[in-house]
Design goal:
The protein is an alpha+beta fold. It has one domain. It contains 6 helices and 12 strands. A 3-stranded antiparallel sheet has the order 1-2-3. The chain has a 3-stranded antiparallel sheet with strand order 9-10-11. Strands 4-5 form a two-stranded antiparallel ribbon.
Length: 274
């Protein structure tokens, strides 16, 4: 009888030990900032504080397909080597300048600076490669996207049904646009229509407008245009000696545009991770 009692106790102790070692659901999937399962499912993978520029500005990034993009506009006043980027009061076809969106320094924190093509490229030649190989104005480890890299981004969005509005493969602008600060539109699938459905990619494009002397077929003699109406982004690829390819989102459009912009104009800049 004594031997049976001892055996029973041993079995009981073993069962208790096994019960203590069994992980709880929380232990099976602990909170881990690097665990992509913890990321908001409405976005691709968000990477907090992914890069810091020379001025100490920190930027989140977003992985969209195989690319990693800054999730906000560049707002540095220096290149990665510490060289100053002068603030412009006029347009230039040769000198690098930065400008404040809508001519107000108060807008820089949210919208970044606008840069002419020469400021963005920092002396580099035009590139059509993917990746561009042009660091330009970007922090170390990041580069200015070529037109081909912008095409890679938009092509990926075209291929994902959750980024396409109303089943029309061209209607991807809402997936890249931020869900605030845009002028409203009644056009279905336009960026400014139903802002709550914007930004499924996490790219968070904001309408910083541009600084230019030529827009929509007319001259404006150095004017800030389109604040809260459109977002214009440079590429590292030129179209002609005095022009380069941008990508743009317009509050009243459902698609992402291309065309060209004059290199003297001030546009927003996003960097891509090397």
């Amino acid at each position: 009888m004594k031997r049976i009692f001892v055996l029973w106790c041993a079995v009981a102790l073993f069962a208790v030990a096994c019960d203590k070692d069994e992980p709880t659901p929380a232990q099976e999937n602990p909170t881990n900032p690097s665990d992509t399962t913890q990321v908001d499912p409405s976005t691709e993978v968000i990477i907090p504080n992914a890069v810091t520029d020379y001025d100490g500005n920190s930027y989140d990034a977003v992985r969209i397909g195989e690319q990693v993009w800054m999730a906000s506009n560049l707002r540095t006043t220096h290149y990665a080597n510490g060289e100053d980027i002068p603030e412009g009061t006029t347009l230039s076809d040769t000198e690098p300048y930065r400008y404040t969106p809508d001519n107000s320094e108060a807008n820089v924190a949210a919208y970044g600076y606008l840069y002419n093509w020469f400021a963005m490229m920092h002396g580099a030649a035009s590139s059509e490669e993917n990746p561009s190989g042009v660091q330009g104005i970007c922090p170390n480890g990041w580069h200015v996207p070529s037109n081909a890299e912008w095409s890679q981004l938009t092509d990926y969005c075209f291929s994902q049904t959750e980024y396409v509005c109303s089943g029309n493969g061209d209607n991807i602008a809402k997936s890249l646009a931020a869900d605030h600060d845009w002028v409203l539109s009644t056009n279905v699938c336009a960026v400014g229509n139903d802002l709550n459905t914007n930004n499924t990619t996490g790219f968070s494009a904001l309408p910083a407008g541009l600084y230019t002397d030529f827009y929509n077929g007319s001259y404006h003699s150095g004017t800030y245009l389109g604040f809260r109406n459109f977002a214009y982004f440079w590429s590292a690829t030129e179209d002609a000696a005095n022009r380069a390819y941008p990508r743009y989102l317009f509050y009243d459009y459902a698609y992402v545009g291309g065309d060209y912009s004059y290199k003297s104009s001030g546009l927003s800049v996003r960097c891509v991770r090397d």
